[in-house]
Structure formats: structure tokens, C-alpha cells
Amino acid sequence: MPLIALRTCLAPADHPMTLFVFGINHTTAPIDVREKLAFAPEITASALQQLVSQTAVSEAAILSTCNRTEVYGRLPVNAVQLGESHLVVAQWLADFHQVELDQVQHHSYFKQADQAVKHMMRVASGLDSMVLGEPQILGQLKSSFSVARQEKTATSHLIRMFQSAFNMAKYVRTHTAIGENPVSVAFAAVTMARQIFARLEDQTALLIGAGETIELVARHLHDAGVKQIIVANRTLARAEDLALEFNAQAVLLSDIPDHLPAADIVISSTASQLPILGKGAVERALKQRKHKLMFMVDIAVPRDIEAEVGELDDVYLYTVDDLKDVIDEGMRSRQEAAKAAEVMIEEGLVTYLESERSLDAVSSVRDYRQNMETLRDEELGRAMAKLAKGEDPEIVMQRLARDLANKMMHAPTVQLKKASALGDDQSLALLQTMFDLNKTL
User: Fold this and answer.
1) Is the distance from CB of 248 to CB of 206 less than 8 angstroms?
2) Is the per-residue pLDDT at 8 higher than 60?
């Protein structure tokens, strides 16, 4: 694979920082924990500002989806070495959402430096998703990056980290079949509906929300032959746009009680922080339906449908976690592509580390040159002052050359003696190479 531009994201040596990711996802936390720690779009910007102003985190971005909440950023290296970095973010997350710290820590993971970059690459490429290779996560990651840039909480280092992940995701999708075959949460929901109803064509579907996931659900239902689709959304205009594409009916969320009795299939995915459907509303709809079966899938986190609805005899209620088995069946064809993608990411990390070392060398050379130029200017200034006082130019020049040479040789001489005293042959050999020494010291 060709080299991918994955630049270092570490801070300068005088302010040592390290990249990190702190998060929970569908493999570490159940839905009832994930929904407590989710960030609604309207609060993400203020959360970022609070995080960088009230903690040691210097740069930050927040990724929040139905399957994960992750904080990406930079922390002082000393905090990592002391084992405090995990606690810094965990405590902030717990305080922000008013959740017990133990609950956050129990379900979370923390990665730093190159492992944080690798994690973001895997997330962007769809390798860490419940639905292997699903493309929506890349768009969600780009959105989180956009918000962080707008809030100026993502600057040079975090920007390069995101760009590295986006480059890798593009490469993986271009060179593997990871994104092929219609496997997604939306597809899984419709597949499960097929298992409940003998003929989807005869059913009426009520879709709550009008985002990307619901659009995919509508597309799969339409392709499956469902003719009666109702789209309910907070804003009617967006619902009408979606309805027009699939010959559906558009209504407001407030109209749901009027249309619920007609719905055989209810699939919901909104960003609401409170339930859209309660047990009472569903009970009333069931009575009007004469207790005809209702199939419901709640894809949202936090949940749109109260969990108590699942207790009703005539309702089959599933959450996003319940779709996992269906998803697992549909993504076997992507396993080989995923293996190839993992190899690509490992190769990308090698490139990343090489780039990191290269930029470190550039920084060191720049600092070395600056030190030598400062030393030169200081000695030259002293010599010029002596000449201005009328001192013998030959003596002044000899002293300038001697003092400049002594000061330039001081630090290397100290390090050579130290390496020799310690028997550090590797450092001795390196110093000999650096200073072009042609004999053994």
C-alpha cells in the first residue's frame, strides 16, 4: 500500500502532551448506560467549551451516536504517567451527565498516543461499528470534527489526527469490499420485520424521525414493497421531503396518536432526550386495533419508546441492541474485507510513527539551529563591543573563535563523557556518527 500522509499529533517537547480517546460503545455498555451519556447535537458545542475550560484537556472533540459516546483530545503526558488521565475525563463526563463515576469507569475504555489514532482509524473505517463497515459513522465523525473546529477546540494536533483517520477510511473503502452488501441497523430492522410478517406489502409502517437512519429504513421498506408509509417528524418540511421520495404521508410528532392505530410497523430514530411514545399511547392504539400485533424497533439513544411498552402482550419491541444477531448474520461477507482493512490500518500506523519521528527530527534540528544562532549572536555582540572600545582586532577575533568553539563543544563533550562513563556504546556510536568522528573515543 502507498504511504498515507499521517502526520504526528504530539505536542512540542516543551509542553509534552499526548492524544487520547475516552469512550463507551455497544461492546462495553448496555443501552441504558449509553443513553445516559449521549450528547444531543444542541449541547455538544457548550460541552466542548466546558471540557477544555474546566479540565486539563487542551483540545477536544465529541462523537455521540446511538452506539457510542467518545471524547477525543489531548492531555498532559504527566497526567497519563500518573494514571490520572482516565479519571480526568471520566469525572467530567459523570459530572456533566449527573451519572455515578463508578458507572462511567466500569463501562469505559481509554487509549492514548498512537493507539488513540489507531482507534479513530478503525472507527472511521467502520471496523469498530456494530454493523461492520457501515458508512454512516464516517459522516458522524466528520460532523463531530466540524463542530470541534467551529468551537476552536480542535486545532493543529487534533485536526491532523482526524485527517489521518479520514484518509485511512477513504483508502480502506476504496481498496476493500468493506462497504458492500446492504448491512446496516436500518436493514437489520427491516429484516426483522420480515421475520414477523409473512407479507410486508400488506403492512403500514410509521417511521418516527427523518434523519439518515430513517431515510435508510424508508428505502429498505419501499424496496420490500411496503406501500403505506407514514413519516412523523418534529418539523413537517423535512418529513415532507422524505415522504415525497417514497410516496409516503408526512405528519408532525404531535399527530402520532392519530396515526398509531393504523401502524403495523413502528420504527423510531430521533435525537429526542425524552421518549416519544409512552405505554399509555400504545395501549390506546392497541384497543383501536383490537389488539392486532404491532412490531416496533427503537433505534434511538436515548430511547424514543418507553421500555414498558415491551411489557404489552401484543407488541414486539426491539432496541438497537436486539438487532445485533440479525446484523451478525448479514455481515459475514464483510469479514475478509475487514481482515484486509486491519492490515492496512497497521501499515498506516507504521507510516504515522515514521512521520512522527520525522517531524520530531525537524523540530530538534530547528531548536539546535536556533540555539547555535543565539550563541553566535551573543559572542559576536561581545566581540563587536570590544572592537568598538578600540581593543586589538586580532586578539578580539582569536577570543571570539575560542569562546564560540568552547561553548559549541560544551554540551556534546558532556554527553560523550557521560555515555563513556556509563558504558553506553549505543549513545557513543550515535554521537560519533552525528559529529563525524573517525576514531573510537
Assistant:
1) no
2) no
d(C-alpha 29, C-alpha 103), whole Å: 10
| Residue 341 sits in the same domain as residue 324 | no
DSSP letter string, 326-380: HHHHHTGGGHHHHHHHHHHHHHHHHHHHHHHHHHHHHHHHHHHHHHHHHHHHHHH
CATH of the domain at 174: 3.30.460.30
| Residue 196 near residue 316 (C-beta atoms within 8 A) | yes
The band of 1, judged by pLDDT with boundaries at 50, 70 and 90, is very low
Q: 89, 16, 85: which is closest to 51 by C-alpha?
A: 89
| C-alpha angle 104-135-59 in degrees, rounded to nearest 5 | 45
Residue 6 pLDDT:
34
DSSP annotation of 160: H
Omega before 302 cis (within 30°)? yes
Domain shared by 305 and 202, yes or no: yes
> Which residue bears the cell 544562532?
373
19 sits in which H/E element: strand 17-25
Half-sphere exposure of 437 (CA within 13 A, CB side): 14
Q: Which residues are catalytic?
A: 66
Decide if pLDDT at 388 tops 90.
no
The strand pair at 265-268 and 249-252 is best described as: unpaired
CA 419, chain centre distance (Å): 43
- Domain contains 107: yes
- Could you tell me which residue, 330 or 59, shows the higher pLDDT? 59
| C-alpha span between 186 and 174 (Å, rounded) | 23
pLDDT tens digits, one per residue of 92-119: 999 999 999 999 999 999 999 899 999 9
Reported confidence tier of residue 86, pLDDT bands at 50, 70, 90 = confident
